[in-house]
Amino acid sequence: MEERADILLRHQRNEITEHHIYRRLALRQEFGPNRQVLEGIAADEKRHYEQWKKRTGCDVPPDWGRVRLYCLLVRVFGLTFGLKLMERGELKAQLAYARLREEDPEVQPIMAEEHEHEQMLLGLLDEERLRYIGSVVLGLNDALVELTGALAGLTLALRNGKLIAMTGSITGIAAALSMAASEYLSTKTEGKGQHPVKAALYTGTTYLLTVIILVVPYLVLPNFYWALGCTLSLAIIIIAFFNYYVAVARDQPFAKRFFEMATLSLSVAAVSFVVGLLLQKLAGTEI
Fold this sequence. Notes:
Layout: H1 2-28, H2 33-56, H3 64-77, H4 79-101, H5 107-124, H6 128-131, H7 133-158, H8 161-190, H9 196-220, H10 224-250, H11 254-283
Helix pairs in contact: 1-2, 1-3, 2-5, 3-4, 4-5, 7-8, 7-9, 7-10, 7-11, 8-9, 9-10, 10-11
């Protein structure tokens, strides 16, 4: 009985916590379908809380830390990412309710509403940053592959951190402008239903930010080999973070995409490193 009471209290706290999350997210939306659905879900969560309260006989405070966390995630990564994480929590709640269904028949309608929440959330997800995710992927992937390769080759060829950073920055900035221009022309020609200027900005900005992150180690670390190792590590971190974001927001597999991008970037870097070494030996020069 004590174990069952603890489970009920956890569900009760989860419902009031999600009520406050959905309510705060709704208040941040402009008046329209998205806000109405979020307000409806918040009201349902509050009603579920009251139903659990009748069984436990006590009030339970929300998990304010979790409320603040999800609101922060939405503010930083967008509504889609935050709602998809909430959706995963809803799926876990359904499994937990299933274990109580045989003991408590009133759990079934709550489970049905949780499923409806999931379907409504899927209908909400129309966010600009995801409509242009292809442009972001283009900028990120090209920057990671091209710049990690270029920096690896320059490391052996130039052997000077500041010089490598300067050369890599010039190469990266030029490539970012080129990629932005190409994406603009591609989007305008193909008519993907996207704004060409926005697509170009997403591609160019993503490329440029990646360049900055990958070049910084050469400016702060005294040894260019350490800088190269740090740059490659940052590339892996960027790939992992981005693929996790896409996996959550787009319901796509994480592992396959991560290993594919990581293998490609590191392979190009390794080949470029060898090419830089060969060129340095053939030229017989050291800087």
